[in-house]
Amino acid sequence: MAEEKKFGPAGGGDDEPRRTSGTGNAATPSSGSRAAAAAPSSGSDAAASPSAPGKRSGIDFRNFMPEHINKEITRRYNIDKCEIGAGGYGKVYIAKDRHFEDRLVAIKKVVKHDAQKTAAFKREIQIMKELDHPNICKLLETYEQGRFMFFVMEYCEGREVFDRIMDTGLIEEGVTSDIVKQVSTALKYAHSRGIAHRDMKPENVVFC
Ligand SMILES: Nc1ncnc2c1ncn2[C@@H]1O[C@H](COP(=O)(O)OP(=O)(O)O)[C@@H](O)[C@H]1O
Ligand SMILES: [Mg+2]
């Protein structure tokens, strides 16, 4: 039985999320355009949003997510050599928190190829910061070291829906409906905050 599925609006790669206009049409996921080139998620749209995130109580909780610059990530995390996933722009590794031995995280490492890409990664960080939902993989902190950026995320156990389909040919109807329900809930939440994923596909849904 499938339990918690999480999709990561992760990316910098193919699936960079994009802020929608923040009005009624926010609930419409944008069609499958490839996000990397088309993610003008900059502040003007956000400011126009009646449900602008982070304005709930006078405290902007987004400020609490650490963004480390030129700090050695391996001092905090013991990163496994084997990747657990790869996307358009980065590889994802499982890592152990040196401060709490039992705590596992997923770390996506991306290369800042150019200014445009760097800006896209930064937009992705701002957008991920705003999402707090049980079915959306949570961004915990980021590190920037030289040409690399690291996204430290909640580790979502399980496997990609894509791999599961490749292994077994199909996913049974009951499990499929559970996955669709959970993903829909997550998307609805994101849309209510003016954010569209823009690259929903089996590779970007992990479930166990
Ligand atoms: N937090 C996570 N926990 C577990 N696996 C993850 C996590 N984030 C990403 N992955 C795995 O890594 C793959 C690539 O990550 P993703 O963020 O989609 O990269 P990209 O944006 O470059 O496509 C995913 O398809 C998934 O298999
Ligand atoms: Mg992906």
List the helices and strands and how they pair.
Blueprint: E1 5-7, E2 18-19, H1 43-48, E3 67-69, E4 77-86, E5 90-97, E6 104-111, H2 115-129, E7 139-145, E8 148-154, E9 159-160, H3 161-168, H4 173-192, E10 195-196, E11 205-207
Parallel strand pairs: 3-7
Antiparallel strand pairs: 1-11, 2-10, 4-5, 5-6, 6-8, 7-8, 9-11
Structure, explained:
This protein has 208 residues and is α+β, with helices and mostly antiparallel strands. It has one domain: Transferase(Phosphotransferase), domain 1 (Orthogonal Bundle), CATH 1.10.510.10. Helices cover 24% and strands 26% of the residues. It has 4 helices and 11 strands. The chain has helices at 43-48, 115-129, 161-168, 173-192; strands spanning 5-7, 18-19, 67-69, 77-86, 90-97, 104-111, 139-145, 148-154, 159-160, 195-196, 205-207. The strands form 3 sheets. Strands 3-7-8-6-5-4 form a 6-stranded mixed beta sheet, covered by helices on one side. Strands 1-11-9 form a 3-stranded antiparallel beta sheet. It is globular. It starts with a strand and ends with a strand.
Overall mean confidence score, pLDDT = 78
Q: What's the domain count?
A: 1
Number of helices: 4
- Roughly how many Å apart are the termini? 8 Å
* Beta-strand segment tally: 11
Q: Could you say which small molecules are bound to this protein?
A: adenosine-5'-diphosphate, magnesium ion
Fraction of residues in helices?
10-25%
C-alpha geometry: globular
Q: Which assembly state applies to the chains in this document?
A: single chain
Beta-strand residue fraction: 25-35%
